[in-house]
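Same chain as my last thread, 86 residues:
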Amino acid sequence: MQRKILYLYPTAGGFSFKLDGAQVNPGSPCDANRMILPLGAPNYDAIIGSIMLAFSSNYVVDVAYDSSTVSSCDTVVNRVVVYRRA
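reply #2:
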């Protein structure tokens, strides 16, 4: 599902961001639309570059996440697709 990134911010553990729309991860105890790309993740530089491009250009994204993190506050992202149309 294509969504806009509402906000993003760096943290000590990586880079967090929130998506608009329906719940991405209903199992999250904090915010079902808050995601994180942890430091040291495979392809970190490429993925964070794509996230920052999408946010600054008001593009929409589609994300895939690690299903083993569904019970955490920040759902771990492992893939991002950026779409040019907003």
